[in-house]
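Incident log, support desk, overnight shift.

02:14 A customer reports that sequence design results differ from what the structure should imply. Their input is reproduced verbatim below. On-call engineer (initials T.W.) acknowledged and began investigating.
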């Protein structure tokens, strides 16, 4: 049965739109509907490779994994990755188009709308309902004509809208009232209600708040959701600030070097959720001698992050360590002798940067990004992973292992059947607990 499509609008940034998107989508799927997640345009340095070998943001890839639906660029047709200075890498329909400044992106926005429309219509033809994640606030008045993820989608496809308000930020009433009343008349009419998110403490204390929103604002409250730690689906640096770990029974200490443009935070979800491991993100030159494993993670701007290692003193310390050191993707590239960017892929001009020198070869940056997804046999085991990098090594094109040094271009190194089982159980439990606090009957009525 075809349902009306849904837009999830935040009344502020980081209101929990990504989580609400997969929660609503999964609840509807459990009721027997076919559901797809969608975000017209995402700004994120964290991406994943789809079944069709295209590149999309981590959030949409994770949402698709929750729903167990095929992944393709249609789920996130426009992706922006920050580059050097004010430049961004523009990825359209899963492929890099060019690198340009932000002004150019907004100036050429109308040329991107057809790509968004093609992807939305592709999904709309195949699913009963699309749950569309918005971006930031939908009522940035100076940018509303340039807002692909919120205003364009809601206008063009007449989606029903759920507002999400983060009560932890304070000013929750003002944010709801302000966003609702600044929306264009058509979209205001399509708002089916608001979800109050991240509530901590006694929820009965907000009973009067619900009455105010419903009686005075005339906006239905679709649910008040508790703040619940959820160590999955890491999208950005804000995600890792919210992780919760119990290190009381940990047998191994792991340090992840958190440089300024670290990427692919989700590589470490299996470790964070392993009770035998205590994982720390390190962003200063503290002593690393007591850690069992030091990980150099992925990086959006490898040479920039390598220079940061040098500036902080971590570079010098890491070179002398006898601990086990693992490099992943950008971190793997840092383990070689030199990184050569003659085509200025990540830099403003042709650059050669001396690296850690653990691996006897150079990394050469090539213009065409390597994108692949398959089962890799590395380090003596099969890994369902993916590659996403500009750097190549002729001698060690996939991985390297000697003494205390290991490295690979492959992401997904720590995922296994045990983690997949944990992930499914955790998601099911989370969605079930949220469903009990949501007015699903009212939502269904609004979209039927």
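02:41 Re-run completed on a clean worker. Output:
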């Amino acid at each position: 049965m075809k349902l009306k499509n849904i837009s999830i609008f935040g009344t502020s940034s980081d209101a929990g739109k990504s989580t609400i998107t997969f929660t609503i989508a999964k609840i509807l799927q459990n009721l027997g509907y076919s559901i797809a997640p969608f975000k017209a345009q995402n700004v994120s340095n964290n991406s994943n490779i789809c079944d069709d070998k295209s590149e999309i943001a981590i959030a949409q890839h994770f949402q698709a994994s929750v729903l167990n639906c095929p992944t393709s660029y249609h789920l996130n047709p426009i992706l922006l990755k920050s580059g050097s200075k004010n430049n961004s890498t523009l990825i359209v329909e899963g492929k890099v188009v060019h690198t340009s400044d932000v002004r150019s992106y907004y100036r050429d926005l109308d040329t991107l709308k057809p790509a968004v429309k093609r992807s939305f219509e592709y999904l709309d033809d195949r699913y009963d309902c699309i749950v569309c994640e918005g971006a930031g606030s939908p009522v940035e008045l100076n940018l509303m004509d340039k807002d692909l993820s919120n205003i364009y989608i809601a206008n063009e496809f007449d989606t029903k809208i759920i507002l999400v308000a983060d009560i932890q930020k304070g000013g929750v009433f003002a944010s709801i009232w302000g966003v609702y009343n600044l929306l264009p008349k058509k979209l205001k009419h399509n708002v089916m209600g608001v979800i109050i998110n991240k509530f901590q403490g006694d929820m009965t204390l907000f009973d009067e708040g619900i009455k105010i929103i419903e009686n005075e604002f005339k906006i239905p409250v679709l649910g008040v959701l508790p703040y619940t730690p959820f160590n999955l689906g890491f999208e950005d640096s804000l995600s890792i600030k919210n992780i919760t770990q119990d290190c009381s029974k940990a047998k191994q200490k792991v340090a992840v070097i958190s440089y300024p443009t670290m990427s692919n935070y989700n590589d470490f979800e299996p470790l964070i959720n392993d009770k035998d491991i205590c994982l720390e993100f390190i962003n200063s030159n503290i002593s690393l001698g007591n850690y069992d494993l030091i990980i150099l993670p992925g990086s959006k701007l490898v040479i920039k992050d390598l220079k940061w290692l040098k500036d902080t003193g971590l570079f010098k310390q890491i070179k002398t360590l006898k601990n086990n050191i693992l490099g992943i993707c950008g971190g793997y590239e840092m383990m070689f002798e030199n990184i050569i960017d003659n085509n200025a892929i990540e830099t403003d001009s042709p650059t050669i940067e001396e690296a850690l020198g653990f691996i006897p070869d150079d990394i050469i940056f090539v213009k065409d990004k390597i994108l692949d997804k398959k089962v890799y046999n590395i380090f003596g085991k099969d890994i369902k992973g993916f590659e996403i990098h500009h750097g190549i090594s002729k001698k060690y094109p996939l991985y390297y292992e000697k003494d205390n040094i290991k490295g690979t271009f492959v992401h997904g190194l720590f995922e296994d059947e045990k983690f997949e089982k944990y992930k499914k159980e955790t998601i099911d439990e989370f969605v079930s607990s949220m469903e009990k606090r949501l007015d699903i009957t009212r939502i269904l009525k609004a979209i039927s």
